[in-house]
Design goal:
The chain is an alpha+beta fold. It has a domain at 273-389: OB fold (Dihydrolipoamide Acetyltransferase, E2P), CATH 2.40.50. The protein is built from 10 helices and 21 strands. The chain has a 6-stranded mixed sheet, with helices on both faces. β1 (4-13) and β2 (22-32) form a beta hairpin. α2 (98-107) packs across α4, α2 runs parallel beside α5 (169-182) and α4 crosses α5 (169-182). The chain is elongated and about 90 Å long. The relative contact order is 0.11.
Amino acid sequence: MASVEFCHCRKAYPTRAGGTATEVLKGIDLTVADGEFLVLVGPSGCGKTTLLRLLAGLESLSGGDVLVGGRSVQHLSPARRNVAMVFQSYALYPHLSVAQNLAFGLRRSRPRRGLRRIQDGLAHCTALWPRLLRVPSRREAAVQRRVQEVAAMLDLGNLLQRRPRELSGGQKQRVALGRAIAREPAVFLMDEPLSNLDAKLRGETRLAIARLQKTLRTTTIYVTHDQVEAMTMGHRIAVLHHGALQQVGTPRQLYSQPVNLFVAQFIGHPPMNLLPAMPTSTGLVLDGRALPLSERLRAVLAQRNAPVATAGIRAEALRVEAPQDQAPTSNSLAATVVAIEALGHEQLLGCRLAAGQHLVQVRAAADLPARLGDNLAITPDQDAWHLFDAQGRALP
């Protein structure tokens, strides 16, 4: 196991026409602790996979350095970096069995001299022969033991003689994970490994990966764009946007304390509701309607250095009552239901506010008798507002 440090890492690709280079990573500084499970999230093209490839040695840095276990790996070949990568496309060898795929990296992990190489090759070829005819090899015996251990760990014991074309998507993914685990690397790199699986398999494999990482305690960097994976798997989450690091923290910190508007809308499902706002001495004015704030938030407004431009609130912090036609109270907003998403245990209501015609999403109980076109009174939690300045930065 080892820690990983990205020290002001930059990556730029030159343009073919000789114009300005395309900068994919803009000085990333990030430390992953020994044994930590870090999830990288962000929209497509933000640099998540490029950061993994720089660590794996599949791309070269334009600037900065990458350290594994406190040692720079910038000038080491991929084979000498002691990292294992699991790809989105599985990348299994189609002509090899599951057992041979699992053992592939083990058989190439250390250089061997000519006679030893011949002996190991003969041992591998005669492994299925009668015992008296087999060529002995301690290295090959160790490889076979490790393959059996990994197969038992991932429930692949009855699949060892199959070829990849004979496996389901979930089985292929387990083989790809097993090939990485078998080498016992210092760092696991996983590039959207579950994106090709259906919803049920994705959930099962997600739990399996989290359980394995907890058991093996291997430093893991996991790339995904899936909100559920990011929030449920990682010890910490790093959010990237346009090649820059936006925020690093625990899932709870990113959800409840976003540092800017991008993180507020990217983390969480549904995204945070954002509304233009103007502060007053007692609260906020949203499209001409005054709403009170808690004492804590009034203190934040009193100490602010930048004017408030946007107020955000999560869907669960908006309370709705049964559909009604009467005017809302002084603490609530009038709205009309324009969309209903039934999720079984709850429902998400898309509501258009009467003031300003802005759309907000509200979490409601599954048994709330709401229908399209119903008029509702929405009451925000006075202490649940998030305040942002004109540059999109969160106010402390």
